Amino acid sequence: MPNNDSNANSLLPACRELLESHPESLRIREQVEALEDAMPDRPGVVVSFCRTIIETTCKTILTDRGIAVDSSWEAPKLVSETIKFLNLGVNDGGVDDTRLRNGADSLIRGLNQIIQGVVEIRNAHGSAAHGADAYSPLLDARYAEILARATDAVIGLLFKTHLSSAKRDPMARFRYGDHQDFDDSIDEVFGPFVVLEAEILASEALFRTDFKAYRAALVQYRQERSSTSVELDSVEQPE
Predict the structure, then answer these.
(1) In this predicted structure, what is the pLDDT of residue 4?
(2) How many CA atoms lie within 13 A of 203 on its CB side?
(3) To the nearest whole percent, how much of the chain has pLDDT over 70?
(4) Quick check: 3 and 40 in contact, CB under 8 A?
(5) What does the DSSP assignment read for the chain?
């Protein structure tokens, strides 16, 4: 029976944020809700979905960035490939911070250990473990909770960094409306047009009919905005 305890949601805030950011993804919803429902009575299910959600998160990030994913990659390889594109160690201003990068390197080493722990415990005690004895004892629920929290921490680091850096470098895959300021800039110039009494926004029409042109214009718009911001910052203020 599904676990409706509100504590289940509080264990996985990053997973819930991932789900909210991709509400149309039935796969992510299925995984997050299955993990929550399994806490704490079905620890083997929890462990199995911990690894699955990590893999899905990495595949989602890589696909968002237009990176081809090899079907043979498992959790450790997916995480290492994902980290390559997240620019850990860059501060909010887009500048490389040496101390932040050194700290990020330490986080990555710890992250790799977490991933390895999740994989090993999943292989030994997960519900999908290969060749498990039907009468083998279940994993202690405390381990399942620790793994769920660790998995959420991994997803939080990866996915939130992904969303943050996407503000500077638009993702290869996103939804119309994610860049409202850019859409407004198009609509202010070209305005809406009417087809059979239906008002159509120019920005949405471009997005739907020629996504590559839309994204190219968006990248240029972001670069111009960034350049203008740097120029304004470099102007000396009067005393």
Answers:
(1) 45
(2) 19
(3) 75
(4) yes
(5) -----HHHHHH-HHHHHHHHHSTT-HHHHHHHHHHHHHTTT-HHHHHHHHHHHHHHHHHHHHHHTT----TT--HHHHHHHHHHTT-TTB-TTS-B-HHHHHHHHHHHHHHHHHHHHHHHHHHHHSTT-TT--TTSPPPPHHHHHHHHHHHHHHHHHHHHHHHHHHTTS--SS--TTTTHHHHHHHHHHH--EEETTEEE-HHHHHHHH-HHHHHHHHHHHHHHHHHHHHHHHHSPPP-
Do the beta carbons of residue 107 and residue 88 sit within 8 Å? yes
d(CA 158, CA 36): 20
| Span 66-80, pLDDT tens digits | 777 888 888 888 888
Alpha-carbon span 163 to 170, nearest angstrom:
10
Q: What is the pLDDT of residues 10-38, one digit of tens each?
A: 678 888 887 777 776 777 788 888 888 88
